[in-house]
Amino acid sequence: MTTIPLRSQTIKNYMGNQSFNGCQKISRIHVTRTWNGMFNVEARIPGSTTSSSYYEIQVMISPQCQIVGSSCSCPVVYRCKHINKVLLRIRNSKNSPIPSPSREHLEAQRRIRNQQIQMARGACVYIAYACKSEPEGSDYRYQSTKDKFDEETLGVFFSQRQANMCARNYVINELELMDDDGFDDDDMDDYNFEYDGQEDGEEPCGYGYYHRVWVECKAIEDASPTFRP
User: Fold this and answer.
1) What is the mean pLDDT of the chain?
2) So what's the pLDDT on residue 122?
3) Of 31, 36, 34, nearest in space to 6 by CA
4) Does residue 108 surpass a pLDDT of 70?
5) Closest listed residue to residue 127, CA positions, set 211, 215, 219, 229
6) What is the pLDDT of residues 137-173, one digit of tens each?
7) Can you tell me the distance from the alpha carbon of 171 to that of 138, in angstroms, rounded to the nearest whole number?
8) In this predicted model, what pLDDT tens digit does every residue of 177-212 receive, in sequence order?
9) Residue 128 sits in the same domain as residue 96
């Protein structure tokens, strides 16, 4: 819960002296802090016409409680009655603090962000790989050519999460090199999985196997040559 000490005069200076018609009540509102201390307030207000079921409003407030910017998905877009209503709600946060976003909202935003990243990259797939060092104990980490080693493709996926889960489960269930405690399912959309570890074994000269399991993202037109049975 967050309190933002926004003053009435600050709202008046930003919105001007115009008067605003009434609108529906705010159905959802939450606030997050950005890396530089800004308040990012997002709200939803039901539409008053049949053309839209609701409008999305965003207001940015500086750490010094100045209005940096605002937007609304209604036809007016800029400094509309919906933005004015949200600003008045922010001013009242000293009596009724604004909540943080729900877990469901954060997960939805993360999915949207990942989709946008994927669209920026172009059409792509996520490929899960595994390999291990040669039986005589040489370490692939010091080799410049990975083709010398026992590399295999574990799976090809359109979803980063599915590729990461495939690679993770291979380390846990097939190699039995790690338990499940070190992995958080909520983070499976935020990075490409990578594991690098050693398995003890009675190999020549006392060497064990070095395993590597990882995920790569490749554009579809570049991915086919990398597939290995």
Assistant:
1) 77
2) 63
3) 31
4) yes
5) 215
6) 455 554 544 444 567 889 998 888 889 889 988 888 8
7) 21
8) 766 655 555 556 667 888 877 665 544 444 556 778
9) no
Q: Are residues 129 and 68 in the same domain?
A: no
DSSP the chain: -B-----HHHHHHHH-S------PPP-EEEEEE-TTS-EEEEEEEE-SSTT-SEEEEEEEE-TTS-EEEEEESSSS-SS-HHHHHHHHHHHGGGTSPBPPPPHHHHHHHHHHHHHHHHHHH-SEEEEEEEEE--TT---GGG-S-GGGS--EEEEEES-HHHHHHHHHHIIIIIS--S-GGG--GGGTTSS--EEEEEE----GGG--EEEEEEEEEEEHHHHGGG---
* CB contact at 8 A, 82 and 45: yes
Q: Are residues 148 and 202 in the same domain?
A: yes
Residue 135 lies in a domain: yes
Q: What's the token pair of residue 227?
A: 């597939």
State the total domains in the chain: 2
Domain that holds residue 149: 120-226
Q: How many residues does the chain have?
A: 229
- pTM attached to this predicted model: 0.49
User: How does pLDDT run across 49-67, given as a tens digit for each residue?
Assistant: 655 688 899 999 998 999 9
CA angle (16, 19, 23) in 5-degree steps:
120
Count Cβ atoms below 10 Å from residue 159 Cβ, excluding itself. Answer: 15
Pairing, β 194-199 against β 209-219: antiparallel
Q: How far apart are CA 77 and CA 73, in angstroms?
A: 6
> Are the C-beta atoms of residues 127 and 226 closer than 8 Å to each other?
yes
